[in-house]
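Thread: Newbie trying to understand structure tokens

Hi all, I'm a second-year student working on a class project, and my supervisor (Dr. K.) asked me to get a predicted structure for one chain before our next meeting. I've only ever worked with sequences, so writing a 3D structure as a token string is new to me. If someone could post the tokens and maybe explain what I'm looking at, I'd be very grateful. Here's the chain:
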Amino acid sequence: MKNPKFMNPSFFVTGTGTDIGKTYFASLFMAKYAMSHQFQYWKPIQTGTSEASDTKSVQNATGLPSQFFVSPMYEFQYPSSPAHASALEGVTISEKKLFSEIKVQREKRVLIEGAGGVAVPITSELLTWQMIQATNLNVIVVVGSELGTINHSLLTLESLAYHNIPIFGFYMVGKENDLRESNAKEIEKWGPAPFLGYTPFPDKTLSQKEFSSFAKEKFDDKQTIIEILLEGNWDES
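---
Reply by user tm_fold:
Sure, no problem. This is what the structure looks like when written as tokens:
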């Protein structure tokens, strides 16, 4: 029997590497579903703030008001792993406080974006996958569409599965190319998680209104992700 008490639509977004498209995915998701389903965006640890803030990037792309965003717990200027950036600034990231706040936030509807991939060090004693595991988060993995993505994607997905971390699936972003469909099929064939869909990068810079329209048309066109989040995360017993 399905137990509705188990259902939790919050999820963690990770990727196969830095700059693969996690923030782009988050912007698409928020543009399409934040208003209608009351999701918030949260990046608990932000590095590289001297260049750009992912929270601000999502807000600028979507035009969503501030109530749809949770402020980061830690922000560091240097673009590196949280462990390295925090050491440079002499700041200690508290695992206890981080875990506690994630457990609070995950009870709401929130998209939590990680810093880099699943093996990125958060502290000298904590990798990203360990944080995901300790806070019982479900994961969507963002993968690229280009040559090499099969290897990178399978390594990430298999690492999560090996550590018994539940994976909703993988979502592909990137330029349309001759390998894109084949890459998605191979990752789904050999990997431990389903293919959730694909959204290309836009051909030009879009205004907030144009981006919203683009997201509603091109992102999660079969409603696969939102159905999984709102209906599919059940405990079968």
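A couple of things are worth pointing out once you decode it. Residues 1-6 have pLDDT under 50 and may be disordered. Residues 125 and 181 are 39 Å apart (CA to CA). Feel free to ask follow-ups in this thread.
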